[in-house]
Amino acid sequence: MQDTYQLQIKRTSEAIEIDGVLDEEIWSVTAVASDFWLSFPVDDRRVEKELQTEVRMCYDETNIYLAAICHGGGPYVIQSLKRDNMQFWKGDAFAVVFDPVNEKTAGVYFGTNPSSVQTDALVSGQTGRRGNTRGSSGINNAWDNKWYCKSKTYTNYWTIEMAIPFKALRYAEKNIWGINFIRSDSKSNTYHTWSPVPVQFRGVDLGYTGALFWDQSPAIAKGNIAVIPYALASTYRDFETDEPIDNAARIGGDAKIAVTSSLNLDLTINPDFSQVEVDEQVTNLTTVNIRFPEKRLFFLENNDIFEDFGIPPMRPFFSRRIGLDEDGNTIPILMGARLSGNVNKSLRIGVMSMQTKDQADLAAENYSSFVFQQRIFGRTIIKGFFHNRQQFHDGEFLTDDYNRTSSLEFDYRSIDGKWRSFGGYGKSFSNDLTGDNYFYNSAIGYDGRQISAYTNLAGVGSNYIADMGFIPRSYHYDAVQDTSFRHGFNHWFSRFAYTFYPTNHPKINTHELGFRNVLDATEGGKLINNEFEINYTARWQNSSMFMFRFANYDVQLLYPFAFTDEALPIGKYNYKFAGFEFQSDQREMLSYLLGVEAGEFYNGYRTQFSTTLQLRLQPWGNFGLTFVQNELSLPDPYGKESLTLLGPKVEMNFSTDLSWTTFIQYNTQDDNFNVNSRFQWRFQPLSEIYLVFTDNHFIELWGPRNRALILKVNYWLNV
């Protein structure tokens, strides 16, 4: 692609005002990226002239500047004024994708829309197939940095100006970067890219970038140090322990230091994450724990280099193991440091050490990690890690309480991204545990325009322990003894899908027919579970979607497990069920998703009804409601159970810098009613004031659990 799609960027001495008005002289003489391609729902033609996009770029000693003209009249769809909102790409939007090292392994994008709402994200080299929701998307939207943009709307087009500081980027001192531009047009429900991206891949795919040619290699940004102190005041009461109200105040902060233009050092002292959005609860009808995403900013930059080992249900590293317990409660962190980025064009590294606080009922822990990725050819890498958890007490090592894991993996990806194969082998080391401490994984996959196929085989020994990882299938809960037992297991996953693209159909974009199979067995070959599913999905041109699936599960309970008040006994269970989902046009002011599942469940039956309603009062308000109701009916003496999950959410944006969000969650499975309300004022870029109220109640007996009110101020200071 970079031989064909090239854009020249030149230095300017002209002062550029970021106001969305392209009246600077430089914009009349710079090179233009135009003639965009459709990337979705088809990829075989250019965008029609009336919807084309024109992009121009220049730079000075501090910033990269971008100007764009997005042709096509309004009214435009703006899902929210909130920065980094998850519905951003379901409206009109534009983004620039940078691969500054130009090795197709790590990048970043900056986007905006006609209301100047900002979004930015880290992009890994493994963004995968468009529409895949089961695995990682390779896109980290929780990452934030300081940059500037302004949009302006006209009768038949809208314009953009951006200023992206070099300090926001990690780049090599070379004169060719990877680059692409993405645009979504809500009226036609289409996605466009400058350098063409096949329809099966996401527009941010780093394997399909064009080339950005600099007139001279950009120099290292001078004084690239940011200090982010915070001050916090809080009041907290724990009603379960009936302790007096705890009023507290504390300070802390982070620092970001550019060691080189592509290698960054992050430091933190007494970090606080109280402003992080609360986890969205789910009803868990499996026998293993649910993995919730990382949202804490310190752990997000270059997090893919730490976490991209193993396969999705078997990750040797999971950053939420640091500073959080299994219930998501905070464990105080004293300090930490992380060095991450590119040492050279082919070698990425990550080094991290975090120290938690010694408490009365919990000894201090040190979590340290070293990881690397070495590109050997094309998009193929060798990577490895060493993780270490070491317990401390009174400032001394506890020699009998530690856990260490290490692994080496090979990851092949074809230049066009269609073929991928990987494999690896690792070990864990814990006190008094020897032998059967292995971890292995292997996989091969293909993502073509119509055919998508993937299979992997992985496993762990019974003595493989990853205290810094997430491998829930290793642990089996015994509901009678109220304890868990560890088992080694082998895991085999396969999926296949065939996508039809109807020619000139007036309404349908695609039909997709597929299947998936998950097989887990103990080291001795005893079945744990075998899940087989066939599914069909239709996607309309107006963004509506219909999905049907039929599933057959064989589950072997190795220990008694309870979904109701009475635990199911050890044994093998076979059950079948079917379900469908329909999602309406997401561009409408009122949209919805409806789902029904019904069928057998272990030795009984289950019916599930789910709905999500979304009312958008453009652009200031979003009012959502999620409701999931499960009815379990098991034979005597196991009884029946009604599981309700209700989640109203109100988001009000008074401007792009001022918002108020309230999220209520009523979850009978966890016996918890939660209210989380957050007021946020971004008074300067990445400098914010938060006022957060959280309240938790028991549902069954209806009484308070705990309550907190927090006021926090943080300030981003470039040194």
Structure summarized in a few sentences:
The protein is mainly β. It has a domain at 6-214: Immunoglobulin-like (Sandwich), CATH 2.60.40.
Mind explaining what this structure looks like?
The protein is 1% helix and 55% strand. The protein is mostly beta strands. It has a 24-stranded antiparallel barrel. The two termini are 39 Å apart.
- Tell me the structural class: mainly beta
Helix content, binned percent: under 10%
Radius of gyration: 26 Å
Q: Average pLDDT, to the nearest integer? A: 92
How many separate helices?
A: 1
Number of strands: 41
Overall geometry comes to: globular
Beta-strand percent range: over 45%
Poorly predicted runs: none
CATH topology-level fold name of the domain at 6-214: Immunoglobulin-like
CATH top-level class of the domain at 6-214: Mainly Beta
Report on the biggest sheet. Answer: 24 strands, antiparallel, barrel
Terminal CA distance reads 39 Å
The assigned CATH architecture of the domain at 6-214 is: Sandwich
Helix and strand topology:
Layout: E1 6-11, E2 32-33, E3 37-40, E4 53-59, E5 63-71, E6 93-99, E7 106-112, E8 119-124, E9 139-140, E10 148-153, E11 157-165, E12 176-185, E13 190-193, E14 210-214, E15 225-238, E16 246-260, E17 263-269, H1 303-307, E18 333-342, E19 347-356, E20 364-377, E21 380-393, E22 396-413, E23 419-430, E24 438-447, E25 451-460, E26 475-478, E27 483-486, E28 489-500, E29 508-522, E30 527-540, E31 545-557, E32 571-583, E33 590-601, E34 604-617, E35 621-633, E36 640-653, E37 658-667, E38 672-684, E39 687-698, E40 703-714, E41 717-718
Parallel strand pairs: 1-4, 1-14
Antiparallel strand pairs: 2-4, 3-13, 4-5, 5-11, 6-7, 6-12, 7-8, 8-9, 10-11, 12-13, 12-14, 15-16, 15-40, 15-41, 16-17, 17-18, 18-19, 19-20, 20-21, 21-22, 22-23, 23-24, 24-25, 25-28, 26-27, 28-29, 29-30, 30-31, 31-32, 32-33, 33-34, 34-35, 35-36, 36-37, 37-38, 38-39, 39-40
